Amino acid sequence: MKHKLLILLNIFICVLLTLGPPAARADTTVFAAASLKNALDEINQSWIAQRGSKVVASYASSSALARQIEKGAPADIFISADLDWMNYLAQRKLVGDGSRINLLRNELVLIAPASSKVSFELKRDAQLGALLGNERLSVADPDHVPAGKYGRAGLEALGLWQQVADKLARGENVRAALNFVARGETPLGIVYRTDAAAESKVRIVAAFPAGSHPAIVYPAALLTVNKNSDAAAFSLT
Fold first, then answer.
1. pTM
2. Residues 6 or more apart from 146 whose CB is under 8 A from it?
3. Which of 23, 28, 75 lies closest to 233, judged by CA?
4. Nearest-angstrom CA–CA distance, 146 and 214
5. How far is CA 171 from CA 34, 52, 80, 145, 176, in A?
6. Which of 99, 128, 135, 154 could hold 213 in an S-S bridge, CB 3.0 to 4.6 Å?
7. Cβ partners under 8 Å of residue 11, min gap 6
8. Is pLDDT above 50 for 177?
9. What domains appear along the chain, each with residue ranges and CATH number?
10. How far apart, in whole angstroms, are the C-alpha atoms of residue 217 and residue 223?
11. How far apart are CA 46 and CA 123, in angstroms?
């Protein structure tokens, strides 16, 4: 999954930065879902070495980034962790015509600290609440953040949401939810598979069944507020 993600993002950035000589190329600002941090940071280091310019990435929940863009934040590109927040910007005429593509997909998993021996199967009416006892389940905010919304949808589909609705440790984004588990502050959490793979202090306990939540799609688009001629190359995709 990580290897595929790096390849796709690398192709995306390659197309993005093809215009103009390196000396004239300005840095490109990307607002990206927090779950893309490792991959984009790795690509950025490569571009600094090869091109002398860089991709300046700002990471947060897709909801927070979309609202910042709406308020005029100077971003060239937006990569969301769901379709809803890209649609939100498109409805406000902030997405460049013809520039939007569905770039990546991901999976949702239940995680525990790496040292944990817990075993659990995500299936209908399983006893997740009993497994938690008096402790909490870390999730990205299910009211606003894509990872949390996917998690809630998956738990509802399996009949597990009511068991845990009052036992949530809500993170501002998926990486915050990941860190709760990595630091041992919660015994279980719900994150994307790529996040779990990037953190050695957690392990995957179970994956959500296919079809239990909407497909996790990362759309990317050039923003109409951008002033960077290099970023306009994105529309060529």
1. 0.82
2. 33, 61, 62, 63, 80, 81, 82, 84, 85, 140, 174, 216
3. 28
4. 10
5. 12, 36, 17, 9, 5
6. 154
7. none
8. yes
9. 2-105+217-236 (3.40.190.10), 108-207 (3.40.190.10)
10. 18
11. 42
